[in-house]
Amino acid sequence: MGAPARFTFWTRAAEAAVLAVAICFSLGAATPASRMNTLSHQLMCQCGCAQLLGECDHVGCPDRDKELSELTTDMAAGLTDQQIMDAFVAKYGATVLAAPTTKGFDLVAWVAPFAVFAAALLGTILLIRRWGGLGGKPLEGATATAESSDPADRERLERIRRDTGANDGF
């Protein structure tokens, strides 16, 4: 009966460790300071510095303190995160958001970079295939130099090879 008791001990020890880690990670998750930090990093400072509200560090910023006090006031009033974001958008416009919404035309801002990358990748693959002759048909105007039927062309190519020291290509 020694083995089951040992197994039970280690199982309970592992459960206690997982519980302790979960508690440590959840501490402070709902504190006003962490909520303030999260929300201030989802909004842009409106002074024109193009920085997040929580990161605006230029000297004499006229808007940072005002916006942070509005954020603190809204949090103290019991507004949800979405209500606070909506209030900032209503007051400052959609440019106050650090990231565009995923609704309506703003969805283009999320989709366009991936679409442009995919189109560029496809164009590059097609261009490389065409350059490499992997496309199936030869380029227009290209002639097979080694198989030229004109003896004058063959003689001219041989003279060029002898003069330049080139052998079959570059």
Description:
The protein has 3 domains: 2-105, Orthogonal Bundle (Helicase, Ruva Protein, domain 3), CATH 1.10.8; 106-138; 140-170, no CATH class. With 170 residues, it is mainly α. Helix 2 (32-40) crosses helix 3. It has 6 helices and no strands. The chain is 58% helix and 0% strand.
How far apart are the first and last residues' alpha carbons, in Å?
A: 81 Å
The helicity comes to 55-70%
Task: Give the helix tally.
Answer: 6
- Biggest sheet details: none
Architecture of the largest domain in CATH?
A: Orthogonal Bundle
Given the helix and strand composition, which structural class is it?
mainly alpha
Question: Beta fraction of the residues?
Answer: under 5%
Note the run of SSEs as H and E. Answer: HHHHHH
* Radius of gyration from CA coordinates: 34 Å
Q: Which stretches are low in confidence, meaning pLDDT under 50 for 5 or more residues running?
A: none
When the domains are counted, the total is 3
CATH topology of the largest domain: Helicase, Ruva Protein, domain 3
> Quick one: how many beta strands?
0
Mean pLDDT: 81
Which CATH C-level class of the largest domain is it?
Mainly Alpha
Shape annotation: elongated
CATH superfamily (homologous) name of the largest domain: Cytochrome C biogenesis protein
SSE order and pairing:
Elements: H1 2-26, H2 32-40, H3 64-76, H4 81-92, H5 107-132, H6 151-164
Summarize the structure.
58% of the residues lie in helices and 0% in strands. The chain is built from six helices and no strands.
